[in-house]
Amino acid sequence: MSEKKFVDISSPSLEATDPNGAPVGYHDVDVFGREEDHQIQHKTLTWPLVAVLMIAEIVSNGMLSLPSSLAVVGLVPGLVLIIFLGLFALFTSWLLIKFKLRHPEVHNMGDAGFILFGPIGREVLSFGTIVFAVFGTGGQLLTGQIALGVLSSNKLCLMLYTGIFAIPTLLCALPRTLDRMSWLSVPSVICILVAGIVGMIGAGRHPIEGWRDQYSVAVKTDFVTAFISVTNPVFAYAGHFLFFILISEMRRPNDAMKAAYTLQIFATVFYAIFAAVTYIYLGPNVSSPSFTSLPLKWSKAAYGIAIPNFLIAGSLYTHTAAKLVFIRYFRKSRHLHEHTVVGWSVWVFLIVLMNGAAFVLAVGVPIFNYLIGIAASLFASWYTYGIAGAFWLYDAWVYKGRLEAWKRRWAMCGLSWLTLAAGAFICVVGMYVTIKQIVDAYDSGEVSEPFSCG
To answer: How many Å from the N-terminal Cα to the C-terminal Cα in the chain?
Structure first.
């Protein structure tokens, strides 16, 4: 793959904007360029549609693990963690968006890695994005498998449910632009919101016996077990790796922060309410995913309503992995903007490849659920939190006066270093906790055979 040096703006200003709501010169160096005469136009998203896409991708199956996180550490510590990580994710969103506006040529985390660390950084962060996106698709396929199994009372082999769910996930990922997918995301967001409400109503109507005495304000536990209450919300907020790609397809990129505010306020509030209500009524033995702990008719209702969300979220993960590779090969070529046989053939191949890889991993690797945890620890810890600190430190060093800039803005400098440290901590400890869970699962005989129906 040939090396391509990105064009950079020598001293970009985020204050001066053109009539289209972008920093001056933005559209001359971004990945899609001027699109007025192109057959395929990517930069068509408005900020409300970006917000919808963000919510559809992030507020999904990850939230169903949050009640079990509260069961591990208790109601108050669990809620504090969910709210803190939500606010922290909003802060890192701001850092990421500022970096994108200052570097229009950045289309994905790999491009950002090239700016920070050179060719090696690009390869590592690109690889991480693809791996995390494929694993994210696989996670949605498994959730879809569970949902279809509940709805049909597990009358078919579970592997067949995964295959059935993989087909519409693939088809919904086929549109070349995110604008087309944004309209599919509107019902997706409505579905997960309604499903969550149905789940809470079901829990309230059928709580466990003596529920008022079953939940705990705080639970004393060991560090390894308690850290699960951190990794679950981290995964539930994991979506920042998609932000660069989304902003690259915005009509007015300066509006990106409006979408981020909408996402994080909605996600944080919804997560906190859903986790608290479900845990209070279903108690310390609440399952993950939590819908499984509901009475059968309520479980079927909640899963049935949520299925479109699982499907669209999986499609967005697939689309993200495919688009990163597609842009890598066809950046600045006519295949990016025209309906060519080569362009469409490669695009369809990439969608099938990414979706197929997710399916094979989901049904063929017995410990895949745990591997998702490893991928989240390795990559979500950095993409959602840690690396945002490096973005601010880099721009302050390069554009604001090197070490003197760090000294002048010591508070932001300190927060950025703390953000890096938090990402590293979540990564290392999350890896340790997940690997320990894998060892325990093997020791207890919980691990099934590859490609099994069980």
So the answer is: 42
pTM above 0.85, yes or no: yes
Question: What confidence tens digit (pLDDT) does each residue in 204-230 have?
Answer: 999 988 878 888 888 888 887 788 777
Q: For residues 292 and 285, give the distance between their C-alpha atoms in angstroms, rounded to a whole number.
A: 11
Say how far apart CA 301 and CA 203 lie, in whole Å.
12
> Left (φ > 0), alpha (ψ -120 to 50) or beta: where does 283 sit?
left
Cα dihedral 67, 71, 74, 79, rounded to 10, equals -20
User: In terms of Cα–Cα distance, which of 417, 418, 426, 416 is closest to 378?
Assistant: 426
Mean pLDDT of the chain: 85
Residue 340 DSSP class: -
Backbone conformation region of residue 238, classed left if phi is above 0, alpha if psi is from -120 to 50, else beta: beta
Instruction: For residue 162, give Cα distances in angstroms to 143, 148, 205, 449.
Output: 9, 9, 31, 16
pLDDT in tens, 226-271: 887 778 888 888 888 889 999 999 988 889 999 999 999 999 999 9
CA distances from 195 to 24, 148, 200, 272, 331 (A): 43, 15, 9, 15, 40
Per the CB < 8 A criterion, the answer to whether 51 and 255 are in contact is: no
Burial class (CB in 10 A: 0-12, 13-18, 19+), 40: middle
- Helix and strand numbers, DSSP H then E, in the chain: 18, 0
Inter-residue contact 286 to 278 (CB < 8 Å): yes
Residues with Cβ within 8 Å of residue 352, at least 6 apart in sequence: 170
Residues 6+ apart with CB under 8 A from 438: 367, 370
Residue 453 CB partners (closer than 8 Å, separation 6+) = 157, 158, 159, 160
Cis amide leading into 289 (omega within 30): yes
Pick the residue with more confidence: 215 or 149? 149
3-state DSSP assignment of residue 46:
coil
Q: Nearest 10 degrees: CA dihedral of 407, 261, 217, 229?
A: -70
Distance of CA 332 to the CA centre of its chain: 27
Question: What Rg, from alpha-carbon coordinates, does the chain have?
Answer: 22
Please say if the pLDDT value at position 56 is more than 70: yes
Distance, C-alpha 429 to centroid of its chain? 20
Question: φ, ψ for residue 382 (rounded to 5)?
Answer: -90, -45
139 Cβ contact partners less than 8 Å away, ≥ 6 residues apart? 61, 362, 369, 372
The DSSP secondary-structure symbol of 11 reads: S
Residue type present at position 278: T
If one counts every other C-beta atom within 10 angstroms of the C-beta of residue 152, the result is 11
CA gap 88, 375 in Å, rounded: 20
